Amino acid sequence: AQKITQTQPGMFVQEKEAVTLDCTYDTSDQSYGLFWYKQPSSGEMIFLIYQGSYDEQNATEGRYSLNFQKARKSANLVISASQLGDSAMYFCAMRGFTYSSASKIIFGSGTRLSIRP
Amino acid sequence: EAGVVQSPRYKIIEKKQPVAFWCNPISGHNTLYWYLQNLGQGPELLIRYENEEAVDDSQLPKDRFSAERLKGVDSTLKIQPAELGDSAVYLCASSLQGARADTQYFGPGTRLTVL
């Protein structure tokens, strides 16, 4: 069975500081993908970054980077130089690539990030 | 490029009434998903379509929920009759099969309140 765990229900960070949002996962699939989504109060899920299990380098997208540690089964999101607009819920998600799991993407319970001015 | 479009954005109904949600995916995306999101939780998949075919509806409560995707583009999700526990946000997402692990792009959701 696949599982995503986000242990930080809420975080407060000072503007311009870097922040790390934790995500651990469990899967029996050899090939899988990890995603991070941002959900502001408006409700839309915004895709941020993707990491494939066989990617050799950690993914980066602008101020977002993914600290992927395969042996530890962790895929933490790092936001550099946080901004007030980063305040939102953040969800870690995973998709397996075997026949039985390929149809499903599962989400963690989310972390609410609040940026202080 | 236009994103995933959903309507209505908000819906308030009384229990036992029917309700329908509409989704228009990103142009060219062949895969469409409906998710349910309860307050403070991550989305949970209800149904996935590849073109017109529902390839995964194992989590759809078929006694009251139904969905269709005629012509492989727009989709409608229906609840009949609605129950108090159906109050949630219903999210639609789409993806292009084979493109970067089928990354899903979401619409703004429909917030349903059942009184």
Keywords:
heterodimer, A: 117 residues, mainly beta, six-stranded mixed beta sheet, four-stranded antiparallel beta sheet, 12 strands, globular, B: 115 residues, seven-stranded mixed beta sheet, 11 strands
Question: In words, what does this structure look like?
Answer:
The complex is a heterodimer of chains A (117) and B (115). Chain A has 117 residues and is an all-beta fold. Chain A contains no helices and twelve strands. The model of chain A has no long low-confidence stretch (mean pLDDT 92). Chain B is built from no helices and eleven strands. At the A-B interface, strand 5, strand 6, strand 10 and strand 11 of A face strand 5, strand 9 and strand 10 of B.
Mean pLDDT across residues of chain B: 92
Runs of chain B in which pLDDT lies below 50 for 5 or more consecutive residues are none
Amount of beta strand of chain B: over 45%
Secondary structure: helix percent of chain A: under 10%
Distinct helical segment count of chain A: 0
Report strand % of chain A. over 45%
Work out the number of β strands of chain A.
12
Summed up:
With 117 residues, chain A is mainly β. Chain A has strands at 3-5, 10-14, 19-21, 24-26, 32-39, 46-52, 60-61, 64-69, 74-79, 88-96, 105-107, 111-116. In chain A, strand 8 and strand 9 form a beta hairpin.
Task: Set down the secondary structure blueprint.
The complex is a heterodimer of chains A (117) and B (115).
Chain A lengths: L2 E3 L4 E5 L4 E3 L2 E3 L5 E8 L6 E7 L7 E2 L2 E6 L4 E6 L8 E9 L8 E3 L3 E6 L1
Chain B lengths: L4 E3 L2 E4 L5 E6 L6 E7 L6 E7 L2 E4 L8 E4 L6 E5 L8 E8 L9 E2 L3 E5 L1
Parallel strand pairs in B: 2-11
Antiparallel strand pairs in B: 1-3, 3-8, 4-5, 4-9, 5-6, 7-8, 9-10, 9-11
